[in-house]
Specification:
Number of strands: 9
CATH architecture: Beta Barrel
Mean pLDDT: 84
Oligomer: single chain
Strand order of the largest sheet: 4-3-2-1-9-8-7-6-5
CATH topology: Lipocalin
Number of domains: 1
Shape: globular
Low-confidence stretches: 118-127
Radius of gyration: 15 Å
């Protein structure tokens, strides 16, 4: 039987060429959580502290798929999926793309953000 890994925790999405020691201000931060109903996640607003639930979050052991929720009270087509594949065996980094033609050239990485021993903290935004 294959070993499973938890991806619960804080993550940040940046272009693949971004400096991991000096994360850009323009990025997307997530919090993935495991609960009784399974894996779910939220987009984190670093400035206001708000959480926006993800429409979909799945992880099959190597591939992570997520879909943002549409803005409230907006009738629109379903949003694209972000499809990311684990890099290495530590499951602290994924690379991939949005599954839409207009973003085909945008190569992204999703990095796990280490949490301080005293618990969750605000994710800093670099200048």
């Amino acid at each position: 039987m294959a070993e499973t890994f938890s991806i619960a925790g804080r993550w940040t999405l940046v272009p693949v060429e971004a400096d991991e020691q000096n994360l850009p201000v323009h990025r997307v931060d997530f919090d993935f959580r495991e609960g009784p109903e399974g894996l779910h996640g939220v987009v984190l607003n670093r400035f206001a502290g708000a959480e926006i639930p993800l429409q979909t979050l799945t992880f099959d052991g190597t591939t992570l798929r997520l879909q943002m929720s549409p803005p409230p009270n907006r009738d629109m087509d379903p949003l694209p999926f972000l499809v990311m594949t684990a890099v290495g065996d530590r499951f602290d980094r994924f690379e991939g793309r949005w599954d839409m033609k207009s973003a085909a050239r945008l190569h992204l990485k999703l990095l796990k953000i280490p949490m301080p021993a005293e618990g969750p903290a605000r994710i800093p935004a670099s200048a």
